[in-house]
Amino acid sequence: MTLLVTGAAGFIGFYVSKMLAEKGHKVIGIDNLNHYYDQSLKKARLECLEEQENFSFECIDLIDLEKLQKLFKGNSFDCVVNLAAQAGVRYSLENPHAYIDSNVSGFMNVLECCRHNNIGHLVYASSSSVYGNNKEIPFTVDQRVDKQVSIYAATKRMNELMAHTYSHLYKLPTTGLRFFTVYGPWGRPDMAPFLFTKAILSGEKIKVFNNGDMLRDFTYVEDIAEGVVRVVEGSAPRQSLPYELHNIGNSKPIKLLDFIETIEKELGVVAEKEMLPMQDGDVYETYADTSSLEKAVGFKPKTTLDEGIAKFISWYKEYYKI
Questions:
Q1: Rounded to whole angstroms, how far apart are CA atoms 309 and 302?
Q2: Cβ atoms within 10 A of the Cβ of 188, count?
Q3: Secondary structure percentages of the chain, helix, strand, coil, to 5
């Protein structure tokens, strides 16, 4: 297939692009390479991707409709994988406009380009954050999700509603994937594994919110990528299922203090902890029911936390020459 992957220089976009290209698909990746976090990390990911002969890259922002339309007109995409987004719950409290621009206006541009270019399937990233503080555990895709607790989460829910509308009105096949707390090598510097590892190795305190009383369904990035790739490769007979949603998670919530302890054991250092209250926009627990994904593509994440953290720490030390 010929595929477009947006956010290709991002954490998950990097893995998905690499996996698709290695499987023989032609992958065109785009990214705006913004300054939300260290650009050198994004460029290093791109250098790895450009070693793949099936991969090519263009620097395009989803907000730039003219450039996006030109890209779609110049290629015949079998499937579009939209992973570009302004990420991060906490940053959405500081700069909400960035989330509306990228996650809502940018997503609308992708939908319009798919609609007018007869794209066979749009696969897009949603998030476990759409569940807000739902009390019914585990989270299932048939639960009501209308009480988000951050602008980031609200924009991801808007993506799902917008995709549903385009599937209904224009018979555009769409599949939304709700990712659960992704971690692993090449991760984002604003995420917990990165922040904890950097602080511990520097002898600094780590910030532990809600006094460590939180649970997260930590999911290893290559498991996430494989789930996405399986959905993409099942793109051909989509017209009978124009709109789908699936969770991708490990289905094993981990206590935050146990997660920190796993990092401490791998580093051989005990962290000095600063206990803090719950931050605005955070939720107490995430827990994925992945039965719909298993039924659709026969896949369930399988990497254990010990395995995933070991791979992350190994990469971190190598990348930063520690």
A1: 14
A2: 21
A3: 45, 20, 40
CA-nearest of 227, 226, 288 to 253 is 288
Render 208-242 in DSSP notation, one character per residue: EEGGG--EE--EEHHHHHHHHHHHHHT-TT-TT--
Instruction: Give the three-state DSSP class for 122.
Output: strand
| 271 in Cβ contact with 200 (< 8 Å) | yes
CA distances from 42 to 62, 188, 255 (A): 17, 9, 30
159-199 tens-digit pLDDT: 999 999 999 999 999 999 999 999 999 999 999 999 999 99
Domains in the chain: ranges and CATH: 2-180+221-250+287-302 (3.40.50.720)
* Chain centroid, CA 289 distance in Å: 17
Q: Which two tokens stand for residue 79?
A: 């499937």
Which residues, in sequence order, are bridge partners of residue 270?
A: none
| Pair of tokens at residue 69 | 């339309």
DSSP string, 133-195: T--SSSB-TTS-----SSHHHHHHHHHHHHHHHHHHHH---EEEEEE-SEESTT--TTSHHHH
Helix or strand (DSSP H, E) at 295: helix 291-297
What are the pLDDT digits (tens) for 1-22?
999 999 999 999 999 999 999 9
> Which residues are catalytic, by number?
152
- The CA-atom distances, in angstroms, between 161 and each of 47, 152, 300 are 35, 15, 25
